[in-house]
Amino acid sequence: MALSPWVFDAHSDIAGDLFLRDDPQRFREHIDRMIAARVGAVITCLWGFADPGVPAAAQQLRQLELLEQALAEVPRATLCRTPQELAFARRRHDVAFVLGIEGFEVPVALLPELHDRGMRHAMLRWSVDSPAVRSGHLTGLGKEVVREIERRHWLVDVSHLPEPAFWELLEETECPILASHSNAAALQRHERNLTDDQLRAVAERGGVVGLNSWPPFLSSDAATREDFIRHIRYVSDLIGPDHVAFGFDFVDYLLDVVDLGSKDLATGLAGLEDVPGLLADLVRHGFTEVETEHLAHGNLINLWQAVSALQLPRGGAVIG
Ligand SMILES: [Zn+2]
Description:
There is one protein chain. The chain has 320 residues and is of the alpha/beta class. Helices cover 42% and strands 15% of the residues. The protein is globular, with a radius of gyration of 18 Å. The relative contact order is 0.14. The structure holds zinc ion.
């Protein structure tokens, strides 16, 4: 059998793990696991809510320092600022890191510095309100953030947005957008999942939806790899397989240090080690090898290339 395609995971909390452990050695373990599972690229987010005792922005900036330190020390892992850099990293068989932020808690004035340090992705909100999203809606500051990140060709990520803010964000930008780690509400009603109208809206503007392995987003019963494949099939049939990706959101390595409300993981999709089996199952479920390769990494790369190359009507594109 041909080697399964390498995987670009649209959502990982490795930076949060480094923060919680304060142990750079953890990064080496993550890289070894990723290489073994053929996960070759990942969007890693600064996440401000690992420790309720520390302000979110301070946690995010500390996570950035830890990630920079880890990337400098550990071989075979590279921070990528452009799709070209990602392609070079993959050619060297390095794990490519795309830096993002989950919940825009940092001051907007820091945006240029974050861009210089490699940030290329943003979610305006996590599961609690942020200065950018309040009571379900984008704030004035949220709209400013959208303009600033669009201007810098960052990936705009709508996962975690309440539905009114989702539609408001689509009014604010013409960019193809990412929903990095959300599933289909038609299969599992949950505030973190997207309705058919939302899924279609993401696809209509050339966006991509990354599907999540966290059990409550998959099924009301004990979730399995089959449930994940059911979501993949449903969303692929609704909006086309070229708009679907993986945003696994694996948390197996966090369960002993942070309370996520549950310790249950999806059977057969509990962590990186299950990814090769998932890819084999997708082919068994009738996805062609080309479709599987697009799901695995091609669609996310195409999205990043499209966002990077965008001609922006608002003018003033920032280069670099
Ligand atoms: Zn999340």
